[in-house]
Design brief:
Low-confidence stretches: 1-6, 15-19, 175-187
CATH topology of the largest domain: TIM Barrel
Oligomer: single chain
Strand content: 15-25%
CATH class of the largest domain: Alpha Beta
Mean pLDDT: 90
CATH superfamily of the largest domain: Alanine racemase
Number of helices: 14
Length: about 450
């Protein structure tokens, strides 16, 4: 795990407040909107995810307002946070949904996202998933390969339907983001290669059951430099002109998502600057625009709240062991990601700081949230929060080590509600089934399955 620049503790606290006005300290206690975080912790126990409805709303409106003249279709990327309550908030604000599986499609529809505002992306859509999308009458399917294009044609034709499709283009542009979330280089699995787009569009215009209506692009996630967008978008605009020059109708452009957020020292593009870039490049083309923002709408709106179980003083390291683990928030282990760590109750002014590793209880060395981080002298029972955990947190969690999935809690003004409950151990165990033939077998504890060397 990379070491980052050292910060003073007041800087860490200011950092949380700068990320969102919806998580603030009052008289030394952390609040989510009008609710003390400690009150939620007492009610649901740690660890848990805590979301602010007002923060989701503010993040969405900031993005949407940047594009007010264009009024594009804004399809929230469900993979960032797929909780039904979160989806309902965005649906009520007028958002559509960008989905990448039948499960996400069902979630979007269950949250009352109109099907005509849903885009289906992803490189490995099965025939069953395509059939579900076609039957639902969604806005469009983003096709990412020639084999997939033929499959959509077959499935839609079998239903007697015509599926609206956009060709997702791989522009071979490096977004300068983490290698595991880069999607716009030719080495990545996503999209049709730039040089093959015209032939793919031509094939789509001839196949039954599909109607090519435009192009799509998405170069990666947590993009913090606007220049890769410029290079990718200019290449897409060039393609539009080429396709139209050949007589193909190109009415829509899906520009994906990927705008980053500030986790540490990043300086991601402002929505207004991003919107100006889009306007300058695509404005003259008269296209209906769509976007797929995810992280930028949800990350700053969530915390992962956890409790200190032990403080272990080693000869080389001081370990703060918390009850959250890598199965609850995998980003630090998977992406070497940084999350600010702040206390639910501030220490006294002038309290000492010391370097510490913040780790979880899972039996993996990778179960580490922070290395050599300057933090207060936390004690057993102290409650902490990982900032900017509203995206790719709960949605990527697992039951590794047979740990229970943690609750998700939504705050609105002075109210809070559990929007995903912590399951019971009985519910966890009920997911498995012991086959009948094992149940009928009587245990023979005296038998030794290891044969001696040379035995027949």
């Amino acid at each position: 795990m990379r070491r980052r620049r050292r910060r003073t503790y007041p800087t860490l606290i200011r950092g949380l407040i700068q990320v969102s006005n919806f998580f603030t300290y009052r008289h030394g206690e952390l609040f989510a909107e009008e609710v003390p975080v400690a009150r939620v912790a007492a009610a649901v126990d740690t660890p848990f995810y805590l979301y602010s409805a007002a923060a989701f709303t503010a993040q969405y409106r900031e993005f949407a307002d940047a594009f007010l003249p264009e009024e594009p279709l804004i399809c929230y990327a469900v993979k960032a946070n797929s909780n039904l309550a979160v989806l309902r908030i965005f649906a009520d604000l007028g958002a559509g949904a960008d989905v990448v599986s039948e499960g996400e499609l069902r979630r979007a529809l269950a949250a009352r996202v109109p099907p005509e505002r849903i885009i289906f992306s992803g490189v490995g859509k099965t025939a069953a998933e395509i059939a579900a999308a076609v039957a639902a009458g969604i806005h469009q399917i983003n096709v990412e390969s020639i084999p997939e294009l033929r499959r959509v044609s077959e499935v839609a034709s079998a239903q007697g339907q015509v599926a609206r499709i956009a060709i997702r283009v791989n522009p071979d542009v490096d977004a300068h983001t983490h290698a595991k979330i880069s999607t716009g280089r030719k080495e990545n699995k996503f999209g049709v290669e730039f040089g093959e787009t015209v032939s793919a569009y031509n094939l789509a215009s001839q196949l039954p059951g599909v109607e090519p209506i435009g192009l799509a692009v998405h170069i990666g996630s947590q993009v913090t430099d606007i220049e890769p967008y410029r290079r990718a978008f200019e290449r897409l605009a060039e393609l539009v002109r080429e396709l139209r020059g050949l007589g193909f109708p190109v009415a829509r452009m899906d520009l994906g998502g990927g705008i980053g957020v500030r986790y540490d020292a990043e300086r991601p593009p402002e929505p207004l600057n991003y919107a100006k870039l889009v306007r300058d490049i695509f404005g003259p083309l008269g296209l209906a625009l769509a976007f797929e923002p995810g992280r930028v709408l949800t990350a700053p709106a969530g915390l992962l709240v956890t409790k200190v179980v032990y403080v272990k003083e080693g000869s080389a390291r001081r370990f703060v062991i918390v009850d959250a683990a890598m199965n609850d928030l995998i980003r630090p282990a998977l992406y070497d990601a940084w999350h600010d760590i702040v206390p639910v109750r501030l220490p006294e002014k002038g309290a000492a700081l010391a370097p510490a590793d913040v780790v979880g209880p899972v039996c993996e060395t990778g179960d580490t949230f922070a290395v050599d981080r300057q933090l207060p002298l936390f004690a057993e029972g102290d409650i902490l929060a990982f900032a900017d955990a509203g995206a790719y947190g709960a949605v990527m969690s697992t039951t590794y080590n047979s740990r229970l999935l943690v609750p998700e809690v939504l705050v609105s003004h002075e109210h809070f509600a559990v929007v995903r409950a912590r399951p019971s151990y009985e519910a966890l165990l009920s997911l498995d089934t012991i086959p009948e033939w094992l149940c009928q077998r009587s245990p023979d504890r005296s038998a030794n399955p290891v044969r001696k060397r040379g035995a027949a």
